[in-house]
Design brief:
By secondary structure, the chain is mainly alpha-helical. The protein has one domain: Cytochrome c/b562 (Four Helix Bundle (Hemerythrin (Met), subunit A), Up-down Bundle). The protein is built from six helices and no strands. The chain is elongated. This is Cytochrome c556. Pfam families: Cytochrom_C_2. Keywords: Electron transport, Heme, Iron, Metal-binding, Signal, Transport.
Length: 151
């Protein structure tokens, strides 16, 4: 149990720091550029456990933790990066985000929960992590299906 608490504490600190740094993270970027950058960081982070599940890379709890940290940092910032009127143009965000903001933000919380569950499952073993990863991907896909313009 002592191994779980430090991870929980680290995740809480990451979320608190990410929320505190939200205004700084955008800087000279537009909100669309900032959220696209964060989405790319989540895609890169997601590739880490995906490669482990596929057997392309060795199972590594530390790498899963780092990937989860990146996702948590991004999801903590994401709600602030969808101000009204920021759909369209280069953005893949659908107007539904702005019409259903509470649902959208709830889905970001679901992604945070799925990410933490992925980190905890990795401590139980590769098979448990694989199951949690499929749940994590389902959360991603559900949000994209409703709120992201198809490619």
């Amino acid at each position: 149990m002592s191994r779980v608490f430090p991870l929980s504490l680290r995740l809480a600190v990451v979320l608190a720091l990410a929320a505190a740094l939200a205004p700084v993270a955008v800087g000279a970027e537009t909100v669309v550029e900032a959220r696209q950058r964060l989405m790319v960081s989540m895609i890169k982070a997601t590739k880490v456990p995906r490669a482990m599940v596929a057997g392309e890379t060795a199972f590594d709890v530390g790498a899963v933790d780092e990937a989860v940290k990146q996702v948590l940092e991004a999801t903590a910032l994401m709600p602030k990066l969808f101000p009204d009127g920021s759909a369209g143009g280069p953005s893949a965000a659908l107007p539904a985000i702005f019409q259903n903001r509470a649902d959208f933000e709830g889905r970001l919380l679901d992604l945070e929960k799925a990410s933490v569950q992925l980190a905890f499952a990795a401590r139980q073993g590769k098979d448990e992590m694989a199951y949690a990863f499929h749940e994590y991907e389902a959360v991603c896909e559900g949000c994209h299906a409703k709120y992201r313009r198809p490619d």
